[in-house]
Amino acid sequence: MTYVQKILEKLHRENPHEAEFLQAATGILTALEPVVERNPQWEEAGLLERFVEPERIICFRVPWVDDAGRVQVNKGYLVQFNSAIGPYKGGLRFHPSVNLSVLKFLGMEQTLKNSLTSLPMGGGKGGSDFDPKDKSEAEIMRFCQSFMCELYRHLGENSEVPAGDIGVGAREIGYMFGMYKRLKGSFDAGVFTGKGYSYGGSLGRPEATGYGLLFFLREALAVRGESVRGKKIIISGAGNVGIHAAEKAVSMGATVIAMSDSTGYIYNPNGIEVDKVKPYKMNRKTSLADYAAANPSVQFVPDPRQMWQIPCDVALPCATQNELDEASAEALIRGGVMAVCEGANMPSTPKAIECFRRNKIIFAPGKAANAGGVAVSGLEMSQNSQRLHWTKEEVLAKLEQIMITIHNSCLSAAEEYGYGQDYVIGANIAGFLKVADAMMAEGVC
Ligand code: NDP
């Protein structure tokens, strides 16, 4: 049994109910086999045993009062996964599916993603099973304030710096930062990223993940002598990542022919007018179903999973974990897809990934392709430390450069180990090497 197999066996034995965490850990550790084999000193140092175990997990109750005066209680979590290369950094997610398994998988992924950005950020993730969707503005504010009453004690510019994720945008960050400030009695701008511009946010942060995804796609296509221009693209998820990916795709000369949200997907073979869809989704009140009802030029199908049946050149899953399964991957391949880049975290199931790799489809895993968001969060931290604001052009130019660097370091790591353009192997190895080096340097702690 190899060292990696021993660790995986231990993880499965100890965490039998954490399906998402086991899925992510298996994907990561399996991809690391070639580099682990070359570094036998890691086993002696118990490196993988330490890497797979979060440094700290905090669970807490979040009581709040709804508009009808009833007491509600949600679960709150913070997973501080790995601080070997910097303060814990990752998003907060508010969604009914949030549990420890989901946050541990996201924290582990985040650790490698943050390392890939080449900025000094460790990995973490937090959130709650609270569902902001059917709540009033006042309820969301009360929830965020209660959540922060516990979370604030764990935050710090040099220890834990959260951002947004599913269900947490600038509005929620604003409410949480306001409460943090009151509790601490101090304006520590650097404890949150994804803030509004007026109180220390970075220009370009809302667009960063989606734009970064397109920069990565451009680089990956270029390796095969292709470009984004003229490609037919389908995008799942019409939230922060999906909408900005669509916007950038159009500006690069591609045609976005389909997009989905949780209500279904819209399709127009001549291209969707992304600028008209955007207000429907950014207000967080209306859906693609509402857009389709007002725009008969698009077809609407009330099942988002069916979107993968549409023939296209490029697919960008930007919604949520495990949204793209093996049958969907096969449908995409039948439809002529040449590249799949993950805007979401772990949207493709292991069998779907296997299918893409077997068929030599360009496949870019989320930890590399969607790293633009956390990269600009890192730039927001730098601006906060300097007490300066950079222009949007400056931020986006730095983002583009970071995405090119991430792409190239994944490619070189894959090539060095004999895996050609395999971004799954490349991203995991390139991300892990820096973390491993720092963990070896700090000794057993
Ligand atoms: P949002 O909450 O802004 O948007 C999520 C979108 O996905 C919504 O449009 C939602 O629809 C849709 N959706 C949910 N489930 C499905 C489904 N089964 N099929 C199709 N669409 C669905 O989240 P983000 O855009 O911020 O995040 C999306 C993903 O990207 C997550 O995996 C996140 O972890 C990852 N990510 C986000 C980053 C960021 O900067 N925000 C950074 C890196 C990764 P509806 O509106 O109807 O609910």
What is the element layout, followed by pairings?
Elements (H helix, E strand, L loop, with lengths): L2 H12 L4 H19 L3 H4 L2 H5 L4 E10 L5 E12 L5 E7 L5 H17 L5 E7 L8 H15 L8 E4 L6 H15 L20 H19 L8 E5 L3 H12 L3 E7 L2 E4 L6 H9 L5 H7 L4 E3 L12 E4 L8 H9 L4 E3 L8 H9 L3 E3 L1 H4 L2 H15 L5 H25 L6 H19 L4
Parallel strand pairs: 3-4, 3-5, 6-7, 6-10, 10-11, 11-12
Antiparallel strand pairs: 1-2, 2-4, 7-8, 8-9
Helix pairs in contact: 1-2, 2-5, 2-17, 5-17, 6-7, 8-9, 8-15, 8-16, 9-10, 12-13, 15-16, 16-17
This protein binds NADPH dihydro-nicotinamide-adenine-dinucleotide phosphate (NDP).
- β-strand percent reads 15-25%
**What pattern of helices and strands is seen along the backbone?**
HHHHEEEHEHEHHEHEEHHEEHEHEHHHH
Poorly predicted ranges (pLDDT <50, ≥5 residues)?
Answer: none
Strand order of the largest sheet: 9-8-7-6-10-11-12
Main CATH class of the largest domain: Alpha Beta
C-alpha Rg, in Å?
Answer: 21 Å
End-to-end separation in angstroms reads: 26 Å
What is the CATH superfamily of the largest domain?
NAD(P)-binding Rossmann-like Domain
Fraction of residues in helices? 40-55%
